[in-house]
Task: structure prediction
Amino acid sequence: MKIAIGSDHAGFPLKGSVLEFLRKEGHEIIDFGSHNTDPVDFPVITKQVCQAVLDNEAERGIMICGTGVGASIAANKVPGIRASVCHDIYTAHQCVEHDDVNVMAIGAQIIGHTVANELIERFLSATFSTSEEFRRRVEMLHEMDNSNQK
Ligand SMILES: O=C(CO)[C@H](O)[C@H](O)COP(=O)(O)O
Result:
């Protein structure tokens, strides 16, 4: 799978092991930085990761900040993006199955690399349900995106 990934300075320490894991799993990666621990504002990198997903350069996005919270707030402001903080296994796959989440946010100050890798594996291997109720709800989210753009 093609994955867009990014972090701020607080997420950077976890990004290295995540990149290693994704490469080992055979994924294609576009890394939008950051590339060191110099302070960088998470909305800047989050927007780049989200744009790659919207442009179909990547199928899913992964954003890492300190808690995952700022990155998920920023990502959810981008129309067409459905983002979630995923710090437990159930959320990591159910958010795709029910809500077609396309950007996962994780917090480097909250979880370690082993848990992060497992969450990412569950997120990437999940697929959106074909059930009518989930499709209907995601369609409502699209409508909210469209009305918010006016
Ligand atoms: O988790 C975050 C946002 O939700 C950021 O990574 C965090 O706020 C960065 O903090 P600081 O600039 O003090 O390192």
Summary: Strands lie at 2-7, 28-31, 60-65, 83-85, 103-107. Residues 76 and 84 are 8 Å apart (CA to CA).
